[in-house]
Amino acid sequence: MDVTGGSNLVRNIFFASVQVDTKTGELLSTSTNYSIGYYLRFISPEAIRVSIPISVSFIESTTFKDTDGSMFTVVMNKTDDTIIYSLVIGDS
């Protein structure tokens, strides 16, 4: 995909996690692409989702539990701004 969402057959705007700047040839990786990488690296296929995905206009989050009991949370800041995020486990 280029940075405008093209090219595709129906000529609509489409988002891709990896894009190419057609003017410079530069490969652009988005925050979504990095999040996908964390899912692939740390969450096994046997893991189950144990939290409801949180999605607001600027942040997304979800947690998985693996077969060994370990848990992994992926949090994605969808903005360029620094956001303070607290992860609360249990009653703490």
Number of E-state strands: 6
Helix content: 10-25%
Please state roughly what percent of the residues sit in beta strands, choosing from under 5%, 5-15%, 15-25%, 25-35%, 35-45% or over 45%.
25-35%
> How would you spell out the order of helices and strands?
EEHEEEE
Largest sheet: 4 strands, antiparallel
Integer average pLDDT: 78
How many domains in all?
Answer: 2
Low-pLDDT ranges: none
What is the first-to-last residue Cα distance?
A: 44 Å
Please tell me how large the radius of gyration is.
17 Å
Apparent shape:
extended
Provide the structure class.
alpha+beta
The count of helical stretches stands at 1
Can you describe what's shown?
- The chain has one helix at residues 31-42, and strands at 18-20, 27-29, 48-49, 54-55, 59-65, 71-77.
- With 92 residues, it is an alpha+beta fold.
- The protein has 2 domains: 1-42, no CATH class; 45-80, no CATH class.
- Strands 3, 4, 5 and 6 form a 4-stranded antiparallel β-sheet that branches.
Characteristics:
alpha+beta; 6 strands; 26% strand; Glucosylceramidase; GH30_C
Give a quick rundown of the structure.
Residues 47-88 form the Glycosyl hydrolase family 30 beta sandwich domain. The chain has one helix at residues 31-42; strands at residues 18-20, 27-29, 48-49, 54-55, 59-65, 71-77.
Topology at a glance:
Elements: E1 18-20, E2 27-29, H1 31-42, E3 48-49, E4 54-55, E5 59-65, E6 71-77
